[in-house]
């Protein structure tokens, strides 16, 4: 790898490591696994960097690979003991707006969702992707993404309303 490619990789690592780790952590709910998966994703990026055309392409590729690998790992580790998400400190990342997933009650509910639903909610609200972008990341039809997102949000709203929490303040309004 040339010096220029190494510098590009270092810049991409610095710019996207918090995003990759955060996605992995929220999907896996295990800091050690999330860190290991993040390292593997960036090792894979290092070998593939010359085929990725732009920074947007790299960001898309990182999200896609991270989500798919985390879902695969979560399925493999069903029998392993898990660290609860509420016991893990939030990763430090620069945020443009408040992250509604920080609310403890909602965080627990999102953490209990099945892998695909959790990935869709995470990509929609943490990564601010629209359903079409999510469908590309997860390699599934956009109609399925929209349907699962709609059902999941309705489920979360119902649970929050039954618990007396106002959904408007958490960003889950219809």
Characterise the protein shown here.
The protein has 174 residues and is mostly helical. The protein folds into 2 domains: 94 residues, Rna Polymerase Sigma Factor, Chain: A (Orthogonal Bundle), CATH 1.10.1740; 79 residues, Arc Repressor Mutant, subunit A (Orthogonal Bundle), CATH 1.10.10.10. The protein has 7 helices and no strands. The chain is globular.
Summarize the structure.
With 174 residues, the protein is mainly α.
Key phrases:
globular, Arc Repressor Mutant, subunit A, single chain, 174 residues, mainly alpha, 66% helix, 7 helices
Integer-rounded radius of gyration: 17 Å
Helix content: 55-70%
Put simply, the count of helices is 7
Termini, distance in Å?
49 Å
Into which percentage range does the β-strand content fall? under 5%
Instruction: Report on the biggest sheet.
Output: none
Low-confidence stretches: none
The H/E string reads HHHHHHH
| Mean of residue pLDDT values | 83
Q: Give the CA-based shape.
A: globular
Q: What do we call the CATH topology of the largest domain?
A: Rna Polymerase Sigma Factor, Chain: A
Query: Any idea what the CATH architecture of the largest domain is?
Result: Orthogonal Bundle
The CATH class designation of the largest domain is Mainly Alpha
């Amino acid at each position: 790898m040339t010096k220029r490619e190494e510098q590009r990789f270092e810049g991409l690592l610095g710019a996207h490591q918090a995003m990759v780790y955060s996605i992995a952590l929220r999907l896996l709910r295990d800091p050690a696994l999330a860190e290991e998966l993040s390292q593997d994703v960036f090792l894979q990026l290092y070998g593939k960097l010359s085929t990725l055309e732009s920074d947007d392409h790299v960001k898309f590729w990182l999200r896609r690979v991270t989500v798919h690998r985390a879902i695969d790992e979560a399925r493999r580790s069903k029998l392993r003991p898990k660290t609860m998400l509420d016991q893990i400190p939030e990763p430090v990342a620069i945020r443009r707006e408040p992250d509604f997933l920080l609310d403890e009650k909602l965080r627990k509910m999102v953490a209990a969702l099945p892998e695909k639903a959790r990935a869709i909610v995470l990509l929609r609200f943490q990564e601010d992707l629209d359903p079409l972008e999510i469908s590309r990341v997860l390699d599934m039809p956009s109609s399925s993404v929209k349907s699962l997102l709609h059902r999941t949000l309705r489920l979360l709203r119902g649970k929050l309303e039954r618990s007396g929490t106002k959904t408007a303040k958490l960003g889950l309004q219809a």
